[in-house]
Fold:
Amino acid sequence: MSKLWQKKYELNKTIEQYTVGKDYLWDVFLAPFDCKASKVHATMLGRIGILSKEEVEKLNIELDKILKTIDAGKFTILPEQEDCHTAIEAILTDRLGDLGKKIHTGRSRNDQVLTAMRLYVKEEMGICKRLCDEVIVSVGKFSKKYGAIVYPGYTHMRKAMPSTFLLWSSSFADSMRDNQILFEAVWKIVDQSPLGTAAGYGVPLELDREFTAKEMGFARVQENAVYAQHSRGKFEGALLHYLSQVMWDLNRLASDLILYSMPEFGYIELPDNFCTGSSIMPQKKNPDVLELMRAKFHVVYSYEQQVFQLASDLMSGYNRDVQLTKGPVIKAFEEVKSSLEIAVLLFREMKVNKNHCERAMSDELFATERVYDLVKKGVPFREAYQQVSSSIHP
Structure:
C-alpha cells in the first residue's frame, strides 16, 4: 500500500512497525476532524482556482460519506497506512481516481495533523468545560441540601475548628470556577489555525488561510509557519496543565470522601451501588471509584510531564518526536471526562449523616471561639490564647 511519502523502495517492516507505533489507533479519534478540515481545504482550493467547482463538490460528497462511516464506527486505519490522512486520501483516490490525489495540494501531513489535533482538542475542551459546569451545579444542589450541617474542620489531619458542608463543598465549586479561567487562557492559545503552514515553511501557493480558519471555526490564523511546528507539544502541554488542575481538584475530593465515608467517621454515606466488594471478606463495601479517581490525577499529571519532555530539546522545524504527544492528550481527555462525570454523580447521590457529624463536634473544636470570646471582653489575644490553652493542657 502506497504511503503519502512513498519512494521507489519498500520500507523495512520492522522499521515501519516501530515508526508507526500506535499512531494508526490514535488517529481514529482525529479522522472526523481531518475530514472536516479537508472539506474546507478543498473548498478553498476551488476558490483560488486549483480545483474546479465540480471537483470540489465531488470531494466534499465523498468526504461526507467517510464522515458517516466514521460516525457509524466502521472506519478503520491499517497499520501500513500510518495515519488517518493516508487512509482518507486512499479512499478518495480509490473512489475518485486522480481527483483524490489532488486533495493534498497545498498541505503537508504536518499541518494536517496539527489542524485535526487542534479541532479535536477544541471539541474535547468544550466537553470538559461543560462537565466542569455540571460539577458546579451539582455542588450547588448538594450545598443547598446539606450545607448547613456542621462537622469538624481539620488541619494536620486533626480536629481544628467547626466547619460546614457548605464551606467544604463550595470550595470545589470555587476551584472549578478558577479552572474555567485557565480554560479560557488555554482556549485562546489553541484557537488558531495552522492549516497552510505545511511542514513549517509554507507552500508556494497563495492559499486563503483566513478563509479556512474562519470556516473551521478558529478565531485567527497562526501566522508563523515555523512556530506552528514549535507549538506542537507546547500547546498540548498547556492543555494538559489545565486538565491536571481539574484532576487535582478531583484528587482532593476523592481523598476527603474516602476519609469521611469511613465507618469510623461516617460523615458521608456513599450509595451502595457506588461501592465494590471483596472476593474474600463478605462485609466489605469498598470506595474503589474514589481510589481510582484519586490515582488518575497522577496519571493525567504524568501525561503533562511526558508531553513537555517529548517536545523539549528539539531544533526548530518538525521533528518526529512530537508524534508521541497524541496518545497522552487523547488518554488524558478520556480520563478527565469520565472522572468529571463521576464527580457529578457523587455530589448528586451521596448523603451527609447529620447524627455522625454532630457526635463528632467535640469540645476542643470550640477552643478558638473561646479565645475570641475573651478578646471581645478586652483580653489581649496572646493572653487569651494562653488562658484557653492552659485550660486544655494544664
